[in-house]
Amino acid sequence: MGAELITEELVAEHLAAALAALAPELDRPAGEGCVGPSEPAKGPALTASVAISGAWNGLVSLQVTEPAARALAQAVFAVPQVGFEDLADAVGELVNIVGGNLKGLLPAPTQLSLPTVATGTISVPGRLARGQAHLGRALVVDLDLAWLEGPLRLTVWEGPEVCGSPG
Questions:
Q1: CA torsion through residues 9, 130, 59, 46, sign
Q2: Among 2, 42, 90, 149, whose Cα sits 20 to 30 Å from the Cα of 109?
Q3: Which of the residue ranges 9-18, 40-49, 50-59, 116-125 would you say has the lowest mean pLDDT?
Q4: pTM of the predicted protein model
Q5: How far apart are CA 67 and CA 112, in angstroms?
């Protein structure tokens, strides 16, 4: 029980709310470039993930281009110059908010890990359908969006149990 509660529409709503809360000046209505299929990332990208563990186990991952991460960090920290640590903090906080909101919808007990942020993208073979597995995890949501003139991809995976989950 749990994955059926997590839909693309719900995840998109939580992502839009998190973006609006973190950086309202970057938020755009869905009809004006915030949502829609994107092209694959060209150039450097950052990927941030949080694990949800407990009664439901999964992973929430977000990948954005470096320019989008830079714009997010500049808005979040209200400074014109940001370093890689600022980019990682801003993208990590965004996935943390989305993951935390999803965790609240799942059966208890559940825990949310700290965000992990790395350069690069998640490699997924082709487009998987909901429920198809990759590396032992079943795809629950795969949002491929256009944001700040680049791709934003948010995925939610179910299983397997991660280290430190309550038992």
A1: negative
A2: 90
A3: 116-125
A4: 0.82
A5: 27
